[in-house]
Amino acid sequence: MSKRTKIVAIIMATMMTIGLAGCGGSKSSGKEKLTVWSHLKPGENDEIQKLASDWGEKNNFEVKVVEDSGKMQDYKEAANSPSGPDVYYGSPHDNLGAFQKADLLEEVPSGMINESDYTAKNVIDAVTINGKKYGIPIAQEAIGLFYNKKLVKEAPKTMEEVVSIGKEKGFKFNVTDFYLTYGLITSDGGYIFKNNNGTLDTKDIGLNTPGTVAGYQFIRDLVTKEKLMTADINDDIAKDEFKQGKTAFYISGPWNVKEVKDAGIDLGVCAIPTLKGKTVTPFLGVQTAFVNKNSTKQEKAWDLIKYLNENNTEILVDKGNRIPVTKSGQDSDVFKNNTNISVFAESAKNAIPMPNIPEVQAIWDPAKNNIKSMIAGDLDAQTTAKNIYDQVVEGIKQMK
């Protein structure tokens, strides 16, 4: 199915279910309609629909939550349709820049976000573009170090310890995935785009500093020197070996906790240990909610988001294995009792939000391709850093 066909299929499914709803809206049995597209999991969406219906009963609205499993960029076309969504719920924050550039995001109304309610400034930074807020954080995620308690009694304190133990008991993860390796590469002074008080400077790229070269060297050594994994490593290989009990360590996020535990692993999770005495700052991913600028019912759409966010903690933790973004969410029993998930919150405290501007798309392929060449032994760390920097700069130029 083509991309356009997928978009049309989602829109038609919405229309068939609730009529000509969404931004144009129509009335049925005295009720106005709101359409919510959700990028959450099916189990989460079922419960979010119940909450949305509760809000609808109190406000004389019919609310339909439509699962969107397509590519996030499909929203740009759908949001301009008369039957497009009023609300998008669960969008990864790094898509906000593309939507804002396309003039599809309504700025968050004053008073909707009380920053003191949130766990850290980084979740607010994730929804801020050029000093303005375009989404409301609903959940967050950051990676951690998985360890098999049958092979390792307690969580290691340093990555050097992970490597040392890994030589005997195994350590594998997808080192070609820049999302997973970012913190290890930049812990000694690197960054993607310089953050100037909420504005990311795409002309100040920190991917070719002495610190990042040292980070690339660490990644290279895992494969070429320590022989902990082969150059064809990917996440499926690393995860399967950890699930089979063949390796003591694996780096991933809360989305893989259930699968690993279902495989019978006595799982422990900790924040990524220090590297060369430096705190590792992985990427932070934030799921957000926002209102379509083309919606004719923006005030009610924001009110619905507020209601959902005030009542979603149990759903997001139990059904989605997600980390709450609010202090009250992390103080809840449902979160505190989920020990494997709550540990990721410690990692999230040190995490850096993925860039939320369109230029971030220039990062992924150069990083992946050059790291692959590096761990194959074709590039040294310094050349890898220079190549990635040069290719990101060129990629951004091509986007202009």
From TrEMBL:
Entries under PROSITE patterns matching the protein: PROKAR_LIPOPROTEIN, SBP_BACTERIAL_1
Pfam families to which the protein is assigned, alphabetical: SBP_bac_8
Signal peptide positions (record): 1-21
Keywords, alphabetical: Cell membrane, Lipoprotein, Membrane, Signal, Sugar transport, Transport
Record membrane topology: Lipid-anchor
Protein family according to the UniProt entry: Belongs to the bacterial solute-binding protein 1 family.
Entry-linked PANTHER family: MALTOSE-BINDING PERIPLASMIC PROTEIN, MALTOSE_MALTODEXTRIN-BINDING PERIPLASMIC PROTEIN
Identification of the protein by name: Maltodextrin-binding protein
Presence of the UniProt keyword Transferase in the record: no
Main location: membrane
Domain of life of the organism encoding this protein: Bacteria
Compartment annotation: Cell membrane
InterPro entries noted in UniProt: Maltose/Cyclodextrin-bd, SBP, SBP_1_CS
